[in-house]
TrEMBL record:
Listed GO MF terms: tubulin binding
Highest rank taxon of the organism: Eukaryota
Name the record gives this protein: Uncharacterized protein
Pfam families named among the record's database cross-references: p25-alpha
Cellular component per GO, a single term: microtubule
SUPFAM superfamilies for this protein: EF-hand
GO biological process, one term: positive regulation of protein polymerization
InterPro entries registered for this protein in UniProt: EF-hand-dom_pair, TPP/p25
UniProt family annotation: Belongs to the TPPP family.
Length: 57
């Protein structure tokens, strides 16, 4: 299970970023992950919440 999770992380971490190593994720890709995985529901979790979290991580 962990390897599938790691692979999903790498997929989003390098999405449209030719310089990415897959070990870190930029805020743009974090937002995409949250949107694609339907974490953002606009009621409990908003785009703003995700953006704030990515800046304080």
């Amino acid at each position: 299970m962990l390897s599938a999770l790691q692979e999903a992380f790498r997929h989003f971490a390098v999405h449209r970023d030719t310089r990415a190593t897959g070990k870190e994720m930029h805020s743009k890709n974090w937002s995409k992950l949250c949107k694609d995985c339907q974490v953002i529901d606009r009621k409990n979790v908003t785009v703003t919440d995700v953006d704030i979290f990515s800046k304080i991580k």
